[in-house]
Amino acid sequence: MPNEKNTCHSPSVADLCTAQVWKGRALWRWLYLPLGCALVLNRLQAVVFISLIAWPLPVAAKQLMYRVLLFILGVKITCKMSPKQVAAHTDGCIVAANHISVFDHFPVLAMPSATIMVANSDSPLGAATAFLLFKCSGGTFWKVSDKKMLARRIREFRRRPSGTALYTTPETTINNGHGLFRFRPEMLNRGLPVVPLALRLNVPFGLTANPLHASGLMKFLRLLAMPRIEFEMSYLAPQVRTAHQSDQAFADQIQQSIAEHLAIAACHWTRDDKYTYRSTDKRATR
């Protein structure tokens, strides 16, 4: 188990991880299963078909096509800001969001000037789909596994921040909505304003969006099979680091602002704590 020094005041690391795949009665899930399987096949075809059509189009046309694709995929986005307001609010900023599912990039790519930092995917299907979504939406991504490339792009971003909103998930892992893993400070202390983005996800049938032991492929396919999933996106006030504030203190400040908005705990458990817990947890997914 993780060291006691990392504990927060309320949830344990186990409380931030859900082993069960489903909650509640199974009847409706089994009745829905044939339709869900058909939706997965049709939606994967739609991703390929619409992305290939949108690929050569101008950005404005891509954004329209991407909205159509999200409708086909059953992804609903709720945001109190209009696209123009989001563009003005996030322009030239780093947008730090809590991480709740493998689908989080779907609503983000619908936002203006979105550039997403990605590391890797444990599912080839998920990686291929993400590539097509970038081509369809007009959004861009940075491959952060290459540290030299990341450093160069950060320098370029600082020289010309206008027209870009750089999205990152400082937890570097996925929580279950009951609390936040501690934010890592590396991407939040770049001399740029940071806009906290609080995400909520509503999924039907008692589905757990990120079961602790499930593969990335199965998490992706289960979400794709849902009739409708809803993302609620709340952009909070920009945060600016003070002169005498440490890197971690600034990251904690951003984490706390999101946690307060979502009315959940801002924990000091880290990604490493989660994976240590997962390696010792013997419960089978159900």
From TrEMBL:
UniProt protein name: Uncharacterized protein
Source taxonomy: Bacteria, Pseudomonadati, Pseudomonadota, Gammaproteobacteria, Pseudomonadales
